[in-house]
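In the current project phase, we have settled on a layout for protein records. A sample record is reproduced below.
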Amino acid sequence: MDKVSFLSRLKEYLNEDAFHKVMEYGMTLLKNILLALLIYIVGKFIIAKIIKLVRKLMQKKNVEPSLYSFIDSLMNICLYFVLVIAIIGVLGIETSSFVALFASAGVAIGMALSGTLQNFAGGVMILIFRPFRVGDFIEAQGYSGTVKQIQIFNTILTTVDNQTIIIPNGGLSTGSVKNYSKQPNRRVDINVSVAYGTKPEDVRKILFDICSKDSRILSSEGLEPSAPMTSMGDSSIVFQLRAWTASANYWSVMGDTTESIYKRLAEAGIEIPFQQISVHMKQ
């Protein structure tokens, strides 16, 4: 059956007015389908260009890999959702009901996952502003350790005794974080208690000599070691050795220097007193 015979038979069953309405509807539908197809092709091309541009910008800004993949996926979902809504609108389907449905679903999901969304938002903030990075030694939420991984919802730390700590990003992004690795240098403070009667110059000579023989301890301008007397206790006077070193060497310098001070003071015959009380009895 050819096109002409089909239209002739259709005319026989429909009156003139109904026939024209069916033809008009068919032409409109065909036009809308072709327009929707065109919008899909052009929209897909534009989306690909936008995503490619954003990817280049993120690579240029050295965005964290976990945030990079998330933003890439989120942009794909959002842009294609807009494209689908546009195509549905062109086809003549009412889009307000779809938008209202998605909005209601979004509100319901948001209320059910409020804590998770807070952690998600915190993860995005951490990955964008970078208060700490993988490899940094931080203290936060009552824990301290080396950052091993920054995920969208959690940050994973490894403590000095090799325990794994998983901290939600919501608290990390809103709470206080002490980043020990942020600065290139750290100051090592070691309190040295010696007996009353010890000459301060003798103590300082030993402390400065220890620092001068350790290449890890910095001595450039503004970073010279110092050893002020900080207090006079019940049974001792206290000096504080203040020496600068690279942040990566902090713990090793702390331990080695403390041991060296103990040995050198013992060799020099300088007494390191312990807590004691002298009792005098009258007869």
Observations:
- The chain has a mean pLDDT of 84.
- The beta strands are 137-140, 143-150, 154-158, 164-168, 177-179, 185-194, 229-232, 237-246.
- Helices lie at 3-13, 16-60, 65-90, 96-112, 114-129, 169-174, 200-212, 250-267.
